[in-house]
Design a protein that fits this description.
By secondary structure, the chain is of the alpha+beta class. The chain has one domain (about 20-160): Lipocalin (Beta Barrel), CATH 2.40.128. Helices cover about 15% and strands about 35% of the residues. The protein contains two helices and nine strands. The protein has helices at about 1-20, 135-145, and strands at about 25, 40-45, 50-55, 65-70, 75-85, 90-95, 105-110, 115-120, 155-160. Strands 2-3-4-5-6-7-8-9 form an eight-stranded antiparallel β-barrel.
Length: about 160
Amino acid sequence: MNKLKFVLPLIALCILLGGCPYESKVPIDSPSVKINPALLGKWEPKSSSGNHYVVSKLDDYNYKIEEKKKDSKEPAIYQAYLSNVDGDIFINLYKVKDEMGQKFFFYKVTLNKSETKVTLAPVTENIDEVFEKSEELKAFFQKNKNLSFFFEKEEDVFIKED
């Protein structure tokens, strides 16, 4: 039973880290999609974990995202912007002041018609390719975004709070 106490947290950590989306040192492109006002505000995961995200406008193209965890006083701060890849909208997300250097994470963004629910489909971490230029990364997205392997199986769903 004592062994189980040590193994369970390790398994939970592996599951948590295993769900990380693809990361790259280059973004899809530079900010060119204007801020969508419907994305601004407070969002809570549909899973209702007690955490929430506050999305605000930095400028005409960039968002600030504060991840507020119920068990932490300091929020994690991210910056993000949207990219249009042949009609599909992707978010380029990076953590501000990341000790490991700037890394971009990518999600396909789908906002429902009533603009109260957003679904983020993480680009799979199983992509092995490394890109030195944004043009190469965007071309890879254009070529592969409709293939079944391109996204993780689980999507993240968030509900907008009033």
